[in-house]
Amino acid sequence: MHIVLLITILFFLVRIVTIFISIKNEQRIKKLGAIEYGKLNSLLLTLVHITVYGGSFYEAYIKNVEFNLYSKIGFCIMVFSYLMLFYVIYALREVWTVKIFIVPNHKIVKSFLFRTIRHPNYFLNIIPEIIGITLLCNAWKTMIFVLPIYIVVLIIRIYQEEKAMKGML
């Protein structure tokens, strides 16, 4: 198996680990009375995320992509995005999920990163991750056709999250 495909699989597996963290947190905060917002958008975001990975993997496989300059840049962006993801998970701890949940008496995290960058999970993890994986795989068609859809779904997600958090600030 080529290095690009192997790296893509490894990143996807790490992403699956974060899903298990999310599910565990979701189960716990639901018991605390958390309310979920934007269910349909969360589903769409999941589907488009999987599409980016699947499309990128498929393009790399079909084109037999070697680990080239674009792959190296994509890999570096992916490493950065995953470091940011794990920092956000650490900072939000048990309230971090891939969905929008508001827990009763929810406390807004006001650490340096969250004060400096609005929605760091989206701007420092998600967007770099989808750009990184498409670059890693030289997946130009996935980037051109799926990235715009992802951005639209993500904008809706940010709007929904802002609306859900409005009464908390």
Q: What attributes characterize this protein structure?
A:
75% helix, 2 strands, elongated, 6 helices, two-stranded antiparallel sheet, 169 residues, single chain, mainly alpha
Descriptive overview:
By secondary structure, the chain is mainly α. It has one domain (38-168). It has six helices and two strands, in the order H-E-H-H-E-H-H-H. The chain has helices at 3-31, 39-63, 69-92, 112-116, 120-136, 140-165, and strands at residues 35-37, 100-102. The protein has a two-stranded antiparallel sheet. Helix 2 (39-63) runs parallel beside helix 5 (120-136). The longest helix has 29 residues, at 3-31. The radius of gyration is 17 Å and the shape is elongated.
Q: Nutshell version of this structure?
A:
The chain is mainly alpha-helical and 169 residues long. 75% of the residues lie in helices and 4% in strands.
Record the SSE blueprint.
Elements: H1 3-31, E1 35-37, H2 39-63, H3 69-92, E2 100-102, H4 112-116, H5 120-136, H6 140-165
Antiparallel strand pairs: 1-2
Helix pairs in contact: 1-2, 2-5, 2-6, 3-5, 5-6
